[in-house]
């Protein structure tokens, strides 16, 4: 009889299996499409049994949701943004925020995950919900807090919701559409920094100090 594993070893093995399953699922979804990928193929790639796969995720939709959730954790706003005390500081904070957002979101794997989520939104509503609640909403909430703080200090006129959407529009333009359609290459590090800086400068020109 083999010795019983310690709980810590079981947890480590479970985390390792979960990681292998998610990597295998994402690779299979990207190569063959969500609908065409079977749980057996994912289990085979991940070197686990179908029983273990189902015990960890339940179904294929849950795996795609987990893939989206894992990648979306990278899209959080920078945690070390300085306190905003001037318009110049606000411009730098927005540029840093935009650079972080574009850098993470334009990663080819992240774009592929978003493409999968969009293509399966009708057939797998949980996927669309995950994309909205884990990725899209937190980004806007973080940016809105910056805008609301700037407005409260008289540094930026305009409703925080409106300035948030305007900044994102200036930052993105049609870049994500091009990436999703594979009609545009991922911008370089310098291009991302330039784009974020220009979006920040344009926003402050549109919205002066509040009276």
Describe this structure in words.
The radius of gyration is 21 Å and the shape is elongated. By secondary structure, the protein is mainly alpha-helical. Helix content is 72%, strand content 0%. The protein has helices at residues 7-32, 39-46, 50-57, 60-72, 87-105, 108-119, 125-152, 160-172, 175-180, 189-206.
Give me some keywords for this one.
211 residues; 0% strand; elongated; mainly alpha
Enumerate the spans where pLDDT stays under 50 for 5 or more consecutive residues.
none
Principal-axis shape: elongated
Please write the string of helix (H) and strand (E) elements: HHHHHHHHHH
- Measured by DSSP, the beta-strand proportion falls in under 5%
- Average pLDDT, all residues: 86
What is the terminal separation in angstroms?
A: 78 Å
Using only C-alpha atoms, the radius of gyration works out to: 21 Å
Quaternary status of these chains? single chain
The count of β-strands is 0
Specify the number of helices: 10
Write the layout of secondary structure elements.
Elements: H1 7-32, H2 39-46, H3 50-57, H4 60-72, H5 87-105, H6 108-119, H7 125-152, H8 160-172, H9 175-180, H10 189-206
Helix pairs in contact: 1-2, 1-4, 4-6, 4-7, 5-7, 5-10, 7-8, 8-10
């Amino acid at each position: 009889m083999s010795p019983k594993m310690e709980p810590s070893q079981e947890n480590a093995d479970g985390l390792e299996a979960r990681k292998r399953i998610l990597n295998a699922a994402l690779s299979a979804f990207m190569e063959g499409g969500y609908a065409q990928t079977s749980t057996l193929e994912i289990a085979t790639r991940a070197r686990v049994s179908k029983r273990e796969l189902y015990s960890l995720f339940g179904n294929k939709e849950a795996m795609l949701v987990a893939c989206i959730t894992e990648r979306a954790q990278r899209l959080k706003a920078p945690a070390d943004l300085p306190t905003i005390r001037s318009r110049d500081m606000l411009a730098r904070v927005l540029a840093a925020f935009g650079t972080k957002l574009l850098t993470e979101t334009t990663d080819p794997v992240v774009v592929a995950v978003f493409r999968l989520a969009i293509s399966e939104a009708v057939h797998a509503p949980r996927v669309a919900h995950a994309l909205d609640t884990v990725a899209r909403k937190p980004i806007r909430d973080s940016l809105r807090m910056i805008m609301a703080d700037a407005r409260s200090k008289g540094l930026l006129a305009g409703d925080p919701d409106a300035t948030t959407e305007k900044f994102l529009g200036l930052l993105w333009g049609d870049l994500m559409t091009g990436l999703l359609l594979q009609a545009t290459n991922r911008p370089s590090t310098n291009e991302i920094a330039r784009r974020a800086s220009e979006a920040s400068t344009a926003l402050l020109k549109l919205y002066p100090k509040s009276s």
